[in-house]
Model the fold of this input.
Amino acid sequence: MLDRNIYPKIDLNTYQREAQMKDGSKVLLRPMRAEDQDALYEFFQSVSSEVARYLRDDVKSRLVVEKWAKNLDYTRTLPILAEKEGVIIADATINRRRFGWKWHLGTVRIFVHKGFRNLGLGQLIIEELSRIAYKLEIEKLIAEIPDTNTAAINSFTKAGFHQAAVIPNLAKDRQNMPVDVVTMVKDIKPAHDDTYDYDF
Done:
């Protein structure tokens, strides 16, 4: 059986980390809290209609953001916010299942405000999500990205993800148009390693 004591511990209720972007400015990474509802709603109002077409959720809807804030459960969905001087400039999540044959997987999504792109923030956040995933005993992280979003694909690649598949017409955008999706994967820890004690 896997010895879970090998993992460093993380308290998501107190976790936060300061990081530095390419321009030298600092950001604070921390989990979303219920009181972030209004600020997160304002953050997503900057999303253009063209970009919103490809997002999984209707992030410009206040009801959607209210639902997220009301139903926070870090064991299922861990939202990580990036703040600069108290203002949200990026949002990311790790979604996971606690039971079943995919309990060891985490699905990652990230959105960076258009005013803070090309500063290495996306890659910085993805790498931090990988560190958090390890502490949460997640073995693999998965990202699904529209094949037209080359900037996101590049950020995930630089953060250690590899392209596992391109699936034609896997999703549909807000205009009901088919979208080819790139599936990217990062191994957080080996599926089997002598470091771990397995009981088969």
Remarks:
- The CA atoms of residues 53 and 94 lie 21 Å apart.
- The beta strands are 17-20, 26-31, 77-84, 87-96, 105-112, 140-146, 162-172, 178-187.
- The first strand starts at residue 17 and ends at 20.
- The helical segments are 37-44, 49-52, 62-70, 121-135, 150-158.
